[in-house]
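Sample entry follows:

:::
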Amino acid sequence: MGSTDAITIRRAEPLDIPALGRLGASLMRIHHGFNERRFMSPGENPEAGYGAFLGGQLENPDMLVLVAERDDVIVGYVWAAVEPESYKELRARAGYIHDILVTDDARGAGAGAHLIEAAVDWLREQGMPRVLLWTAAPNDRARKLFEAHGFRATMIEMTREL
């Protein structure tokens, strides 16, 4: 990994779980705010739940959790994974960027770009032929970041409430 422009990208470790929980909870709140019917409610203590969830990914060899640090403070993270072939999704084995979040005060400093490229590099090292990700339809800022890093739309999720 490495350091660029005062942002350091490194593998997450167990001591990072509280910060990962806070960031993951923020991601949940943002998405729930986009569409409270589509995205699960953060509930009472999403920090603990998401922290435990991401902490459980740290030792899985098919998963990667990286953090972005600035001045010894975690300002972002990315969770990427090697995903097996899926007939449900009509796709071959591929890399996925499941989560990426950068704090408001760190946006524009390159943390998101560095996290994306570090995850893509790791997935390339794992032999993945492509990297996929999903983004919420109203998240224009994220979509622009992803497009700037070579991602293009290939599927559109549609939802109907019952």
Observations:
- Residues 2-148 form a domain with the Aminopeptidase fold (CATH 3.40.630.30).
